[in-house]
Amino acid sequence: MNKLSRRISGVGLTLLSIWFIFFLGFVDGPGIDFFAILLGIFLLILAFIIFFNKKEDEIEKIKKLIKN
Hints:
mainly alpha, 0% strand
């Protein structure tokens, strides 16, 4: 279950960051919006951290062992 939620969150945040970079950064206005590009890059890095975080699975396994 945790892997699925990580994938959904990671993919959703990746799509949002791509939207920020391309559509708000380059296409939307008459010039280049550097703030939207930087925010998109930050969100993309955050999405990769969420998507590839394996420690969270280990923490969930430990919590389940402690409960039982």
